[in-house]
Design goal:
alpha+beta; Serine Threonine Protein Phosphatase 5, Tetratricopeptide repeat; 8 helices; 28% strand; elongated
């Protein structure tokens, strides 16, 4: 009975507090409760691309043309533009990169564009990422400002960030809207990142001949750190001599133009494959073709 009375008193207090709230506060509460999840006029979008081993992320809102004249009118010439809609367009780099050859530290930046009518546009990275568009923009907070030539593009109703020309250590970041595209080249220090990642993996499994061979093979394929690749492949062969790691060593020697030794090691790899590996036959034509090529260069 006492519990029932206590609960009834608490309910009465809650009702009284609600009645005492100001009309404005009650209206605000009702407005918050009645908000609907509706499609945005300029939808939110996130584009992520790994360049080398570095994640690059663009977070933006995408406006539409809607029959309007964009360049020089909706987006005025010679003024800083948010490169999207609503709050700042933000670009982030997980590691230091270069944009059109200019170094940018890892971090998050507002991404702005300054379009011009008769000259190259400018791409701006600004260290302040909490503004609403260009409101409050201050050039003193710029990390860098790059010239970028706009190119004519097919009509695109919605603003779009996208990546192209993907290579092991670089990619082109493009902004396309209406009939214009502007782009910058993103490059990463792949060599340093790859070697660090390889050394970390090998430190955890130093006796894995397969992992050592995989590391050497990657370095050979990408013409990176030939001396390090040779050390890795020699250690792999010491742990277990197989046709796979022996053939990697032959390819490495050929890349160093030591064709005579490459031929000798390559023939040994073929003998190991014929003797021990049932999957070897699928690789044999490619190996013989490489040996023929090396012989033409050696003699």
């Amino acid at each position: 009975m006492l519990s029932f009375r206590f609960s009834f008193l608490l309910l009465g207090c809650s009702i009284s507090l609600g009645l005492l709230a100001s009309p404005a506060a009650q209206a605000q509460t009702r407005a918050e409760q009645q908000q609907l999840a509706l499609p945005q006029v300029s939808p939110h979008a996130v584009v992520q691309q790994t360049v080398g081993l570095t994640d690059v992320v663009i977070d933006y809102h995408s406006p539409s043309v809607k029959g309007r004249a964009v360049w020089g009118q909706l987006v005025p010439f010679d003024q800083v533009w948010r490169a999207g809609a609503n709050e700042n367009t933000v670009i982030s780099f997980a590691d230091p990169v270069t944009l059109n050859g200019k170094t940018v530290p890892a971090g998050r930046y507002s991404f702005y564009v300054v379009p011009h009518e008769n000259q190259d546009w400018e791409v701006v990275l600004n260290r302040v990422t909490t503004h609403w568009g260009a409101e409050g923009y201050d050039a003193q907070d710029d990390q860098l400002r790059l010239p970028a030539a706009p190119e004519t593009a097919a009509m695109h109703e919605n603003l779009l960030f996208w990546f192209s020309e993907l290579k092991p250590a670089s990619a082109r970041l493009n902004l396309t809207w209406e009939k214009r595209t502007v782009s910058v080249l993103v490059e990463t220090d792949l060599r340093t990142k790859v070697v660090a990642a390889i050394e970390k993996s090998l430190a955890a499994q130093p006796q894995s001949w397969q992992l050592l061979a995989q590391a050497a093979d990657y370095l050979v394929q990408n013409n990176l750190e030939s001396e390090l690749a040779l050390r890795y492949i020699n250690e792999s062969i010491r742990l277990k001599e197989a046709y796979t790691n022996t053939w990697i060593k032959a390819r490495l020697l050929a890349s160093q133009q030591d064709y005579g030794t490459a031929i000798e090691v390559g023939r040994k790899a073929i003998k190991l494959g014929e003797k021990h590996d049932t999957n070897f036959k699928t690789q044999l034509p490619t190996m013989r073709l490489a040996l023929t090529e090396w012989q033409s260069k050696a003699y």
